[in-house]
Amino acid sequence: MAMPAKNNSFLRIDGGRPLHGTIAASGNKNAALPMLAACLLTEQPVTLENLPEIGDVTTMLKIAETLGCTVEHKPEQRSATVTARRVSSSNLPPELASQLRAGVLFAAPMLHRTGRAAMPPPGGDVIGRRRLDPHLQGLVAMGAKIEFDRELSFQADQRLQGADVFLTEASVTGTEQLMLAAVLAQGQTVIRNAACEPHVQNLGEMLISMGARIEGNGTPTLVVEGVESLHGTCCRVGSDYAEAGSFIAFAAATGGEITVTDIVPDHYRMTAEVFRQLGIELEFGRDRVRVGADQKRTVCHDFGGGIPVIDDGVWPQFPSDLMSVCIVLATQVRGTVLFFEKMYESRMYFVDRLIAMGANAVICDPHRVVVIGPAKLHPIELSSPDIRAGIALLGGALCARGESIVRNVHLIDRGYQNIELKLQQLGARISREE
Length: 434
Hints:
Elements: E1 10-15, E2 20-24, H1 29-38, E3 46-49, H2 55-66, E4 70-74, E5 79-83, H3 94-97, H4 107-114, E6 116-119, H5 133-141, E7 145-148, E8 152-155, E9 164-166, H6 172-182, E10 188-192, H7 198-209, E11 213-215, E12 221-225, E13 233-236, H8 241-253, E14 257-261, H9 269-277, E15 282-284, E16 288-291, E17 309-311, H10 323-330, E18 335-340, H11 351-356, E19 361-365, E20 368-373, E21 381-383, H12 387-399, E22 402-407, H13 409-413, H14 419-425, E23 429-433
Parallel strand pairs: 2-14, 3-13, 9-10, 17-18, 21-22
Antiparallel strand pairs: 1-22, 1-23, 3-5, 4-5, 6-8, 7-8, 10-12, 11-12, 14-16, 15-16, 18-20, 19-20
Helix pairs in contact: 1-2, 1-7, 4-6, 5-6, 6-7, 8-10, 8-12, 10-12
């Protein structure tokens, strides 16, 4: 199993150079994590291919091992086989589970396998309140008993029962949790207002390949007929549109020209529109996207000359995970744009660091930032506060002429595979140091 990056490592970036070249998108972090939890739903081996080599995947595999699973991890082949023939523990190790939010997704599989699960409150990035209510209310409706003191305790004295569940918000992990619960529950489960993101669909495809009966995969209403058992499978993790979108934003911000391969063009419909608003046109092929160096690089005003508003929302709206890198891009194009982060109240705090680098931006409140570009960014030494803010600040360092230092790089490693190697492949002068 790959060793996690050391917490004291940092990235040294000599910025101010356009990115050029071709790079392949990695597997989607947000698909891989629930798919790893789903491996516990069967006693037979489950193989996941195109698995990203990132910190969160390593943590999920370690958790599976502590629960009694056999894990055969092949980082060089980007695959792992998990065999949950015997689940020997119902307790997630606090030191691992507290590192990421996705650990909570082991709850439903463990209720099926052992009748109980205990874990600390989920960790992960501190980007605002991330409610567990969709998970808890749905599992309770299916017969689980849940207590929360210093840890979350789940218990099911008998087989979970199908239920008609309406999610009060289209929560990605909430939808995934209920899918994992419904596939082996007795009877029919209907999940309404379900999340529809590509990674949720990827989990659905995996479960169907294991013998689950799911109708409406990729729609807001999922109908799941519970089955007696599931079997092993081999499933491919889809490509990561957040990673690909980040590299595209960096190339556009530095005036470069790159192609990202192994992508699904349909995943970028709203993203392409946002880039167009920022004066950047994307070109799509069958499995690739290209951003050229010859761009307008001028904000496209709304009809009547209004300042455009870029906001995020549930799929298929603009994904929150790309908001931060597009803010960096906006500092390098001409014009004014308002960014409205609707989903997380702490995701905009990183903009303070961009302002310290010379960005012309105004933080209106925890949810809204006005950016006026272009601005000449200068190098700085800073620390990554979380995955998405960290990658955005790294993008700012790529734009700034001179040497920058980005610390806490282990947080970026949780979501981006071999970040410095991929950027080196695109011509960036970047190195990892201890």
